[in-house]
Amino acid sequence: MPATFAARLPHRGVLLLTGDDRVTFLNGLVSNDVSPTADGAAVWTAFLTPQGKVIADLFVVPGHTADGTACLFLETDADRLDDLRSRLGRFRLRAKVALTVTDLAVAVTDSAPAAQTGVTAFTDPRHPLGGTRLIGPADALPPGSDTETLIWQRHRLRLGLPEGSADLAPEQGFALEYGFDDLKGVDFRKGCFIGQETTARMKWKHLTRKRLLPVHLEGPSPAAGTPVLDNGGIEIGTLRSTVEDGQGGTLALAFLKLAPVRAGSALTAGTIPLTVTLPEWVKLPPEQA
């Protein structure tokens, strides 16, 4: 990473999933196989609509409550905790699970933190340079600073890593359009999950025609949500997260139609020229005939 940082992520929050059936319960709902959590691994996954659109992204992290009870921490958007608890809870039926909204905080760092009672640390499973995320009481996590947050946001957007509803607009895009397959957030072998049929069909029939992609703008960025235009003035997508790059330009994620990207069209957001910067992990689907 370009500089040492420990950034607080106030836009992220944590649901607590407890009970003997916690792994099998969640595994039947989300896009990734969460059984590796039984061996201590964290996974990134999506909770989808039946039509396959992303409701929210989740880091699923094994851990223990303050009284030593085994649990799964579900890190997601802080302002969606009550909604997600309600949505997931509809599928509880006779499963021996409980879902609880917590006040636990989230941080991310590029260094290996010392073990600390009450704090759960895990490596971002999406990318080797994604850093270490921390879940714990607010007063037990690094306080962070505006500078460290800026360093993290620049790093995240250069890597092309989405985070929460600012990038993954709820129920507006499919899992593969948001890169969940390339970022190890979908398991096509694990069995049924909500939205599986559409997700699998898009994968095997190469039906992905839009993608969330990292971009660079040659000037100060217009606001998130600004339309991205091709060289004919036709809207082909919108900006999502943005941050100034420290050199007069802007790093961002943009949700774009793939055809003009493949064609090499000159793109703009507002009046600012925009270039797609594909990281090594992005594998665009084969072009449709």
TrEMBL record:
Entries under Gene3D superfamilies matching the protein: Probable tRNA modification gtpase trme, domain 1
Keyword Transit peptide: yes
InterPro entries reported for this sequence: CAF17_C (IPR057460), TrmE/GcvT-like (IPR027266), YgfZ/GCV_T_CS (IPR017703), YgfZ/GcvT (IPR045179)
Superkingdom of the source species: Bacteria
CAF17 C-terminal domain span: 209-283
Source organism: Novispirillum itersonii
GO biological process: iron-sulfur cluster assembly
Upper taxonomic lineage: Bacteria, Pseudomonadati, Pseudomonadota, Alphaproteobacteria, Rhodospirillales
Cited SUPFAM superfamilies: Folate-binding domain
Key words of the record: Transit peptide
The protein's name in its UniProt record: CAF17 C-terminal domain-containing protein
